[in-house]
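Quick one, tokens below:
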């Protein structure tokens, strides 16, 4: 039975990912700060506080020795939605970097051994089109910059993991109708999940050799860095 761990799995995209993989017969570990908020029968819930390094180490200890085919770093925050620069609190900016960039890399680092023991050997990261230096826009400084930093950190981490045969990929889920995406979202969550899963299923060594082309949109197209 293939195994996946998903962060931020108590709502939105993370919860939908957990449901999708569970329905396909996967063993699913769902990590979130408050897993009791939205329990899914059959999913193995794990408490994880992304702002607490010790919580990440506890996650590592809990999963020690278990092969994990996919670690999906999905959890994130969008604290400055539509805010102009003068309204953004510095603490929110720092927290955006902590949750959106630093924590996902630390989780990937903590679970890299588990992934290397598996058959698929994939670490996925939910990023955003708003992270692109080419397709950029105004406002949301904290969110944009934290996701851009994540993209760079993942590229560095991917280089470090080549010897272990681990594939690292960044995925934009699209503008989805969720609590974070808002009711003005352009696609429903089922479309996003199906698209991203298709991208993950098709990942190959060729992607690692062509990361310069950009990262992935949910439909498989590339977004320039």
């Amino acid at each position: 039975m293939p195994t996946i761990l998903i962060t931020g799995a108590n709502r939105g995209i993370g919860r939908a990912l957990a449901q999708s993989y569970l329905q396909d017969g996967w063993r699913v570990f769902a990590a979130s700060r408050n897993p009791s908020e939205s329990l899914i029968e059959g999913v193995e819930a794990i408490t994880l506080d992304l702002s607490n390094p010790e919580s990440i180490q506890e996650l590592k200890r809990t999963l020690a020795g278990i092969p994990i085919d996919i670690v999906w770093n999905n959890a994130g925050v969008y604290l400055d939605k539509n805010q102009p620069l003068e309204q953004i609190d510095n603490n929110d900016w720092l927290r955006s970097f902590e949750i959106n960039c630093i924590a996902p890399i630390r989780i990937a680092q903590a679970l890299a051994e588990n992934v290397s023991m598996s058959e698929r050997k994939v670490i996925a990261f939910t990023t955003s089109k708003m992270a692109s230096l080419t397709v950029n826009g105004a406002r949301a400084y904290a969110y944009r910059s934290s996701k851009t930093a994540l993209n760079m950190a993942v590229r560095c981490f991917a280089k470090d993991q080549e010897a272990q045969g681990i594939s690292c990929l960044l995925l934009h889920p699209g503008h989805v109708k969720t609590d974070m995406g808002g009711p003005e979202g352009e696609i429903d969550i089922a479309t996003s999940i199906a698209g991203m899963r298709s991208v993950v299923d098709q990942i190959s060594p060729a992607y690692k050799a062509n990361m310069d082309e950009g990262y992935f949109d949910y439909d498989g197209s590339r977004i320039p860095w």
